Amino acid sequence: MLLIACEETGQPRAADPASRPDDVEVLQLGTTSDMGRLPWSIAERAGTLRAIERRHDVRIDIIRFANEADAVAAYGRRDIDAVTSTLSTMIGTVEAEPRDTHVVVVTDFSRGAHGLISRTVRHPRDLRGQTIHLPLNTASHYLLFRVLERAGLDMGDVKLVNTPAPRLLERAIRGEINTMVVGAPVLGQLQVLPEFRSISTSRSLGGELIGGVMVDGALIDRKPRLGHALVEAWFEAVGEVLLDAETFTDAGLEALANLSGLSETQVARFLSPRDLVANAQASLGLMAGRNLDRTILGAQRFRLDARAFGCTRSSTESCVFTRDGNRITNGVGTEIYLNGQFLRQWRNGGDDD
Predict the structure, then answer these.
(1) Residue 203 in contact with residue 110, Cβ under 8 Å?
(2) Whole-structure pTM over 0.85, yes or no?
(3) How far apart are CA 117 and CA 114, in angstroms?
(4) Model pLDDT for residues 210-247, shown as the tens digit of each residue
(5) Which residues are paired to 30 by β-bridges?
(6) Cis previous bond, 166, omega within 30
(7) In what order do the strands lie in the sheet with 179-183?
(8) Contact criterion met (CB below 8 Å) for 24 and 58
(9) Out of 1, 79, 120, 226, which residue is the most buried by the measure of CB atoms under 10 Å away?
(10) C-alpha pair distances (Å), 96 with each of 22, 214, 312
(11) Alpha helices in the chain, H assignment, sequence order
(12) How many CA atoms lie within 13 A of 71 on its CB side?
């Protein structure tokens, strides 16, 4: 029997009027059920988020989306103020709706939580001419691009069918899909179908699939306490599930299993404690490190190869991102700023502005 853990998507949690004065600052944060994003939901359910909101006199409305592409698209349309996303997805799609964006915290890695699986294909070089189902403009899409690239292939060598993760599960059960790319929890739920074998996972990318929190730049400049609250919320959320850098707490592992619909053994297979960035110094180091440079270059190649899905301007120039220190830009007005000020203040025990 397959069970899908799901929550209402596209809606914030109900507000408590007594705890929300007229002058409280509100931020709408889009997130998904990807394994590395589950600590947000755990912190919300545990009441940790409420306590942080009271300390900073803000409100963080968490809005859940079915997949990363929907969340990033909502951010691009300015339907939400912030989004949790892999940086490769954010860098690759932000050009479609120019918006200055601040990355305020690097949060997680996918190192095995996304996989390319098939009934009929056993090696990446045999993907040529195959139909592959996946949610487009997501970490799964990026993984496929990198697998093809390493095999000497490109997106033009395969036929892609945009299929949301829940539909992948349904159609796989009915025998309608042979090859797909998907992330956990659905990837774990598909393991009960023995005819599917793994071709590659995001573990092969090392630390290339890096997640973070991206916030509207104008908003965070005007209301810096929202940045402080987001950074504190992430590290408190991680504290709900980690005993130390190598170990989940028993309660944390149980909560992750309950939210994902996976067994605790499966959770540990797809999400390691080391996949969650648990302190400000580590997050700052990742902003400055080589992993992020590889992500930027990979995202640039990805968008150029998959231009039919991502590069919507008449020229591909807007798809070429470069990094100059803490700024990632496409040269036509879109800029992503790696804003470490809130991490530094959290690390140093500083207060809000």
Answers:
(1) no
(2) yes
(3) 10
(4) 999 999 999 999 999 999 999 999 999 999 999 999 99
(5) 63, 83
(6) no
(7) 159-162, 131-134, 179-183, 114-118, 197-201
(8) yes
(9) 226
(10) 34, 16, 6
(11) 38-46, 48-56, 68-76, 87-93, 139-150, 165-173, 186-189, 217-222, 224-241, 250-260, 264-270, 280-288, 290-305, 307-310, 341-347
(12) 30
Q: What per-residue confidence (pLDDT) applies to 56? A: 94
Q: How far is CA 266 from CA 42, 106, 111, in A?
A: 18, 24, 14
d(CA 90, CA 96): 10
Backbone angles phi, psi at 37, to 5 degrees: -100, -10
Mind listing the pLDDT tens digit for each residue in 41-72?
Answer: 999 999 999 999 999 999 999 999 988 989 99
Distance CA 303, CA 120 (A): 28
Q: Tell me the CA distances in angstroms from 125 to 86, 119, 172, 196, 231, one per residue in order.
A: 26, 15, 23, 17, 42
Task: Fill in the amino acid letter for 8.
Answer: E
Q: What are the pLDDT digits (tens) for 128-152?
A: 999 999 999 899 999 999 999 999 9
Joined tokens for residue 246:
């190598």
Please provide the DSSP assignment of 241-297 as one string.
HEEETTEE-HHHHHHHHHHHTS-HHHHHHH--GGGB--SHHHHHHHHHSHHHHHHHH
SS3 of residue 298 by DSSP: helix
Query: Is 175 exposed, middle or buried (CB count within 10 Å of its CB: 0-12, 13-18, 19+)?
Result: exposed
| Nearest alpha-carbon partner for 328 in 305, 301, 295, 350 | 295
Sheet holding 58-64, edge to edge: 58-64, 25-31, 82-86, 210-216, 101-109, 335-338, 327-329, 322-324
Distance CA 189, CA 186 (A): 5
DSSP H or E stretch at residue 161: strand 159-162
